[in-house]
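Margin note from the TA: students keep mixing up input and output lines. Inputs are the sequences; the output is the structure of the whole complex. Example:
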Amino acid sequence: GDSVTQMEGPVTLSEEAFLTINCTYTATGYPSLFWYVQYPGEGLQLLLKATKADDKGSNKGFEATYRKETTSFHLEKGSVQVSDSAVYFCALVVSSNTGKLIFGQGTTLQVKP
Amino acid sequence: EAGVVQSPRYKIIEKKQPVAFWCNPISGHNTLYWYLQNLGQGPELLIRYENEEAVDDSQLPKDRFSAERLKGVDSTLKIQPAELGDSAVYLCASSRAEGWDTQYFGPGTRLTVL
């Protein structure tokens, strides 16, 4: 079945460090891919998305490229801030299941000053 | 534009008691979702509505869970009776349409069953 696998956390970085959170997927159709972020005490917010192969989603300095050949959608940021501390979820939607988001288990990011 | 509204934000009940959660989606969003998020895990879909019709409830434990979306706007998710294992965060999301359209999430209701 369709699934998403993320790197386990927590990921602890110093401010201004480079961030990579790995995400790989398995899908029977042609998925759209998403990164959601959950700040402490808040709901899930869409961070970025990509709907077809080689698309790059970007927002707030974060980027992720839809790699069909490696079935990956890794999240990157060149210089993290303390305010980026949150839980990050990779997710997919496959057209055949009409809207059902399938999430990874989430990766906690802690950024220290 | 107002976001997805959920209430209550927190609920503590004893096992075997009933509980209900309410969701008001973003105005104009026809599709509404209820997700369950266990601690340390990603959300999992419970039920999806297109307007007032439940089009995917395959993951909803129907022996104790029920949901409704009267008039195709607000929705209520109910558990009766609650069990210890139901302690989790219940998330509501909405989108303009089904498929790949972006889903917007509410803050969730954190349920604790004692």
